[in-house]
């Protein structure tokens, strides 16, 4: 066969792909060579010397991890010469190892244990004392026990090659080599946990689960992460219904075993002591726990009464896009068929709906690019400068494409290309970075379109001069980037929340679709468009009919269904009398709206939650729901991959999965569902989907594009919707202001995860050090930020990633800040945009110094 | 780019090395040398400056700086004594000599005298195997050492700032 070679391994003739390393070829022959430093994700280093083999005609033994198999090679690992040499290497490694297996968290899954068992000489010839390192806590989440280290440097290489964080080094030399950070400072990195997972021994272990388990005691359940839309597979490791830790297996899942801080350290909200364990009702102003029977009856009776008195349209429902496909499907069925209301919406309304609707209206599907396409692309055009924070695993795919495969990355965003120490940043590794003024990505898209779409089938486009005035990007740069994109063999376009969650979002995605069509980067192998999802099942929510405009299968719903913001407005006007909210928290997410006041007008507010959130606190009835760890189902990630969620532990306390609560409620409402489990719901879902679902053929996409091109299209020129600053801000310095996501937090749940709170538990406003210096600001100093409405005080933190002239505020703590930012609603999709504004920053005369939040 | 401790001159010297090497990272050894020359030792801010100049993280600089004994991570004395501890010198009494120097200066290996004059470090072979035990002080070699010679060398250096007992310059062992 072409590209294959034959060699003899331990007397057995095997055939492997050209370029295969001997250590991998050995597996084909059924032999596992002992090794520590070799790891399939990393470039070989050949430093541990354990995998030595004999190759005929080469006098010395060779390391199999660094030798490429060649035609006719005769290799042996099963002869005394090799085994004696391996035993000798092992004796040297064990010479310094403390053999403290009984108290080591790695015990039972340790490569040193396994290989020592096979290769130990059983007698030690060393009379010398072993080296002794003091135990160090390596930052808030990682324990470092250097006595156990075999100096394989996998952690250092993973941190560099895969994560691009470069937070670890090998310090000192010889037998006193240790893994360390800069001059024994605590680690301040991305905390992806990769070094813990890739360590073959117990040198780096997690403090979050230290001494909580022996590996053979845990039950492992493979499931899907509940945070962002990347859709990573992870294993929940549990003992007696407690989640002890998270792990992932090399090469498994869409993430291929890589995780981020949220995935690896963000699990313990599941067993948080504030979890709701029984339904609650508000009775005469007092909140009390009741039985399920009581709560369900009360909900059913009151819903029926409202339906009878005001009609079904007085009832609305909002579901979180963290719920499973089955649950979202069942919820919309409950609302639309049992109750009879068209008002159904979900968290996808906060931005993803822009991408889902625009892409499916052009291409008939959102499934246009997969992670493999990113890894193998020769050009990636990214409108997601913050991707390493919002969608860290998808960002790893880009890093792989750029750093290992030589792809060119063009990043267009309002970030600086500088990076913070020990934190990766995509604009920093971009081949070309166009740093635009905040909120002007739309102009750049028009500029690129203007270069490529000569026929201007979209109507007149603004002049290059206008585009440059608005965005700061001139014609030459636009021509260069557009040329690169159109000239690529496999160009992948990525769009993130900068596009979907900001002004003109829907139109901007449409324009990007036009751009990809004009550049010829859709409908061909390896090219495509990927819209990043902030929550794990946003695409699922749209496909399952969890939005007002679509029934399951993206079938248009009858007009009249109210969106999330419209429901809140209707509640304020008294048109909607009852809201059923699952896992969403609009009181917190939409501080600009008077949600609390609007909800006070409701006759009935039902909330289904894990915690008593701000919205749940206002509710008449709260159903205690379960987390992803306690239920079965399916999530659809941003690529469109439908993946199984598996129950790892029994529901905490008396909580129930959302789908079960919907079934029980349907019973009480007199229209029982009769589902025994989520698989039965899924069967019904699949039957209800169009035949072409989930994947659309290339031909179908092409014909969808053809019919789209025939439609009359009109480009809406972006407008600057920020209202002018109001009075009282004299003496300050003007900045663009962005509220956005931080790597260590995601929405509501992560703030209940103690591991993540250890990394960052405080808010801060981030500023570029070069902007801070002329203002005489020091890190941690409290500053005054005057918003279009009102003002806040917050400590400043420095970050080189922040674009000059802008401020960044992570969204997961006090959202009071958003109250002062303007809120606009997308005219097409009713997405509420309220993350950006123009503010002034001024010093407070008395400087208050607090702990530094970042090391610059 | 604003530097923390390195002078613009040092920065220029480092940048002048770039064309000689394939990547910025490979300029690390000369850059550390230039910084040490200017500051006397490699302080944390100096290593952070180098990291910025070479587009590395500080730990990547620290990694290399800790590997080589000729880079000082702590301030060293005006006279930096480096005694060879390798086999040939060891066979002719290096250990006893090291013990003597420690006693005489009242410091241990790796330390600096309180007056900041002398610091003591052990190094690998300096290629003067035929004339051990030996040491290098700053850039001068001192060979065929005895306790009496050490006494005189240290006295000379303290009083005069130089000693006639120096046998040759750095890297050039005495002709036999």
What this model shows, in words?
The complex is a heterodimer of chains A (856) and B (176). Chain A has 856 residues and is an alpha/beta fold. In chain A, 30% of the residues lie in helices and 19% in strands. In chain A, a hairpin with a 2-residue loop joins β1 (4-9) and β2 (12-17). In chain A, α8 (325-339) crosses α25 (678-688), α14 packs antiparallel against α15 (464-471) and α14 (441-452) packs across α16. Mean pLDDT of chain A is 92; it is low at 722-729 and 847-856. Chain B has 176 residues and is of the alpha+beta class. Chain B is 42% helix and 11% strand. Chain B has helices at 8-17, 28-39, 44-54, 58-67, 87-91, 94-105, 147-160; strands at residues 79-84, 118-123, 135-137, 140-142, 168-169. The radius of gyration of chain B is 18 Å and the shape is elongated. The relative contact order of chain B is 0.11. Classes of the chains: A alpha/beta (856), B alpha+beta (176). The interface between A and B is medium-sized, with 15 and 13 residues.
Largest interface between protein chains, with number of residues from each side? A-B, 15 and 13 residues
Distance between the termini of chain B: 52 Å
Strand-pairing-aware structural class of chain B: alpha+beta
User: What would you call the shape of chain A?
Assistant: globular
Question: SSE layout and pairings?
Answer:
The complex is a heterodimer of chains A (856) and B (176).
Chain A: E1 4-9, E2 12-17, H1 22-28, E3 52-55, E4 62-63, E5 74-76, H2 80-96, H3 111-119, E6 136-137, E7 142-144, H4 154-161, E8 169-171, E9 178-180, H5 194-198, E10 204-206, E11 219-224, E12 233-239, E13 242-247, H6 261-265, E14 280-283, E15 286-289, H7 292-310, E16 315-319, H8 325-339, E17 344-346, H9 352-363, H10 371-376, E18 379-383, H11 387-390, H12 392-404, E19 408-413, H13 426-429, E20 432-435, H14 441-452, H15 464-471, H16 475-487, E21 491-495, H17 497-500, H18 505-518, E22 528-531, H19 538-543, E23 550-551, E24 555-556, H20 564-573, E25 578-582, H21 586-589, H22 595-600, E26 604-609, H23 614-617, E27 621-624, E28 633-636, E29 642-645, H24 658-668, H25 678-688, H26 698-710, E30 733-740, H27 754-759, E31 765-767, H28 769-772, E32 782-786, E33 791-798, E34 806-810, H29 816-819, E35 824-825, E36 832-833, E37 836-843
Parallel strand pairs in A: 1-5, 16-17, 16-25, 18-19, 18-21, 19-20, 21-22, 25-26, 26-27, 30-34, 31-33
Antiparallel strand pairs in A: 1-2, 3-4, 3-5, 6-7, 7-10, 8-9, 11-12, 12-13, 14-15, 14-27, 23-24, 28-29, 30-37, 31-34, 32-33, 32-37, 35-36
Chain B: H1 8-17, H2 28-39, H3 44-54, H4 58-67, E1 79-84, H5 87-91, H6 94-105, E2 118-123, E3 135-137, E4 140-142, H7 147-160, E5 168-169
